[in-house]
Every structure is written in structure tokens, then in C-alpha cells.
Amino acid sequence: MADKSFLSWPFFEDRHRQLAERLEAWCAKNLPVDHHDVDAACRELVQKLGRDGWLKATAFDTDNPGPLDVRTLCITRETLARHDGLADFAFAMQGLGTGALSLFGTPEQQQWLSKTRAGKAISAFALSEPRSGSDVANTEMTATRDGDSYVLSGEKTWISNGGIADLYVVFARTGEAPGAKGLSAFLVPGDAKGLGIAERLEVIAPHPLARLSFDQVRLPASALIGRPGDGFRIAMSVLDVFRSTVGAAALGFARRALDESIKRVAERKLFGAPMAELQMVQGHIADMALDVDAAALLVYRAAWTKDMGAARVTREAAMAKLFATDKAQEVIDKAVQLHGGDGVRKGHIVESLYREIRALRIYEGASDVQKVVIARQVMGAA
Ligand SMILES: Cc1cc2nc3c(=O)[nH]c(=O)nc-3n(C[C@H](O)[C@H](O)[C@H](O)COP(=O)(O)OP(=O)(O)OC[C@H]3O[C@@H](n4cnc5c(N)ncnc54)[C@H](O)[C@@H]3O)c2cc1C
Questions:
Q1: Number of the ligand 1 atom closest to the C-alpha atom of 93
Q2: What's the pTM?
Q3: Ligand 1 atom at minimum distance from 205 CA
Q4: For the segment 74-117, what is each residue's pLDDT rounded down to a tens digit?
Q5: What is the DSSP string of 291-311?
Q6: Which end of the chain is more exposed for a tag (fewer CB within 10 A), N or C?
């Protein structure tokens, strides 16, 4: 049984505690799903999460306007990740994919949100390219104005939900200025003419992922999100909301690894006694618990700060993502070690956690990038 004592921290309100309890019961009943066909699994997860109301938190509610509640996003991601990494992925992408619409969309563009919040449309966020991942300023895809249209040409890669998404938020160069200041964001329907799947990408923790080709994709001018040249600012504002939630997912994986390890060392006998009686084992468990609690403090500090109305939480979110993902990797590695041979057996829960955690230290800003962000923030403030 996962430790829930963090829910008594002052970062939360009673509605968050109730949400955690209800979601726990939902997860016990509905997760994990069969992962053999990841496209089908993701569609099923989005449909079920939408049907039962969990996706409402992922996007702006046009009937009841208000900011996204980052603590709700984080508690949900942590809980889903503890039960099923793919369920966390399905939930997270509905938010990341529509973040630009929630924050900057026109009322017409925001009509998509009632569908994504109900699990009736799947969304994706398309920023990375073959030659620009960390270096967003180097984006090469172009969006050329042609009368009342924009024409998009180029490639995007590593796009989660690529191939199954109903809508993509795509960042392309419109050229108002060199580098990051010459990018704009566009809403692209999944069935737009000229948008194709160039390649499906397989990774160690499978989920729908693709390289996309844009061959003269013509969009009405109303597909522009925000103003021309605002693309980088929009992408960074979206990441400002969702980056700490990546830390929350890592926290969920780490908590599961800790739980599995506590169970394992209590049950497994070594040298005539439970493993749990060996002091070196206790040392590992203590290190894991410490890292989990420290990560939780940073994640929920970032979420609370944003929910309290901070315009930007760049430093807090970067610290939360960096620490929670790096430490989750260490916690899970210790869990594998404590499980001995079973820890590397295909299909064992700690083996799958070992694969699940790795990409979180790369996407939405690699760990090294988070260090650069933190250093700039603290040196700039000094
Ligand atoms: C599973 C997965 C899902 C993804 N989903 C999406 C998605 O939905 N949408 C999307 O747009 N992108 C997505 N990405 C892409 C992801 O954001 C990029 O992979 C990431 O930004 C790194 O870019 P890159 O792979 O081009 O690596 P590079 O930019 O080539 O960087 C390689 C490494 O260099 C190091 N590095 C980078 N910058 C610095 C620095 N300033 N100082 C020191 N070291 C540095 C880091 O260790 C980094 O990992 C996904 C990636 C993965 C693996």
C-alpha cells in the first residue's frame, strides 16, 4: 500500500485528498490494461479516462473558466503512473497536446477541448525535429503565409500519439525574427491533407510515437494559435505548467518501486531470515524513501506555487522535474537490485519500471537542460 502521508501536507486542499482516494479506487478496478497493441491500449485508456471524468483536469473548461489546477494534474499523474505507465501517458498527452489551446486558443480553437476532456479526441504536441530537440531555436519546419492560409512544410519527430492523434499543436518557423523569436504555433487536425506518418518509432517502454511529415499542409489563417512569432513563448508557457507533472509521473514510478521493494524484502528469506533484517538492505530502503519524499516535496512545491497564481514557475518546475526523474531512476535501479534475478525478468513490474523511467529524463527538456535552466534562474536572481 503506497504511502499517502504526503496528502496531509499543506500544499493540498480537501478536494485533492478526495480526488486521490477516488482515483486510487478507479485504478484498482480499471488498471493495468493490456499493452500488446499500444495504439489500441491508448485509445481504450483515453476513452475510459474521459468517460469517467478524469480528463476534465487536462484542459481549460470553456463552461466554467479558470486556470488548470497543477496539483490535480500531479496527483493524477502520480497515481496513474504507480498503477500503469501507459495510463499516465494517455492522461498526460491530453494535457500537453492541448496546453497551447487552453492557454492561448481562440474560442473557436477551444471547441476541441470539450472533446479531448471527454476522451473523444486524442491530442499531440509537435515541437521536436530530427535536427532540433533540445535546440528549439533551430526549428526548421516552415509555415508560409499564402493569402488566407498558412502552408506547413517539414518534419517533426518523437511525437507522442503520432499516428493516433485527432489534433496536433505544431510549432513552425514563420520568420518574424531569427531563432526562437521567429516561431509560431498552429492547430493541425489529424486528417489534414499532406500530413503523413513518415515512420513509427519503437522505444524501450512502448507507446504511440512517430516521425511526421508535412508536405505542403495548407491551413486556414485561423489555425494560428496566439500571434505570429509567439510560438516559443507559447511552448515554454505550456511546459511551465506541465513540466512539474513529469516529475509527478516519475514520483509515481518511484513510489511503486519502493512499495514493491518493501514487500519483497519482507517476504524473501536470505541466510535464514527475511532480507529486511539485513542492515545494508535497510540502508537501500531508507535511501529510496528519502528520495521519494524529497521528490514529492519539490513536485508539489512547484504545483502549489503555480496554483497560487505565480506567473512563471520556471525554477521550481525545472528543479521538480530534474530531481524527481533522476532520483526515480536511482530508486528503481535499487529496486531491481533488491529483487535479484527477478528484477530483470521480462514482465516483472520492476523491470517495466526500469524501462518506463528512462525517457522522462530526456523529454520535455533533458536533465542537462534543466540544470542550465536552474543555473540561469538562480544566477539571474542573484
Ligand atoms: C519517449 C519520447 C517521447 C517524446 N515525445 C515528444 C512529443 O510528444 N513532442 C515533442 O515535440 N517531442 C517529444 N520528444 C522529443 C524530446 O523532447 C527530445 O528527445 C528532447 O528534447 C531531446 O532532444 P534530442 O532527442 O534531439 O536530443 P539532443 O537535443 O540531441 O540532446 C542530446 C543530449 O544532449 C544533452 N544536452 C542537451 N542540451 C544540453 C545543454 N545545453 N548542455 C549540456 N547537455 C545538453 C542532453 O543530455 C540530451 O539528452 C519525445 C522524446 C522521447 C524519447
A1: 8
A2: 0.97
A3: 1
A4: 999 999 999 999 999 999 999 999 999 999 999 999 999 999 99
A5: HHHHHHHHHHHHHHHHHTT-S
A6: C
Q: Considering only CA atoms, which residue is closest to atom 17 of ligand 1?
A: 363
Is residue 364 flagged as an active site residue? yes
Report the separation in Å between the CA atom of 365 and the middle of ligand 1, taken as the mean of its atom positions. 6
The answer to whether residue 381 scores a pLDDT higher than 90 is no
**Cα–Cα distance for residue pair 371/231, rounded to 1 Å:** 23
CA of 330 to the centre of ligand 1 (A): 20
DSSP strands (E only) in the chain: 123-126, 142-146, 149-160, 167-173, 183-189, 195-200, 209-220, 224-225, 269-270, 273-274
Q: How far is it, in rounded angstroms, from Cα 21 to Cα 67? A: 23
Query: What single letter denotes the amino acid at residue 335?
Result: A
Alpha carbon of 295 to ligand 1 centroid (Å): 22
DSSP state of 344: G
Query: Using a 6 Å CB cutoff, which residues line ligand 1?
Result: 125-128, 133-135, 158-160, 203, 209, 359, 362-363, 366, 368-369, 372
Cα 162 to Cα 151: distance, rounded to the nearest angstrom: 20
- Does residue 274 have a cis peptide bond before it, meaning omega lies within 30 degrees of 0? no
- Using one digit for the tens of pLDDT, what is the confidence trace for 110-141? 999 999 999 999 999 999 999 999 999 999 99
- pLDDT value at residue 2: 84
Tens-place pLDDT, residues 275-305:
999 999 999 999 999 999 999 999 999 999 9
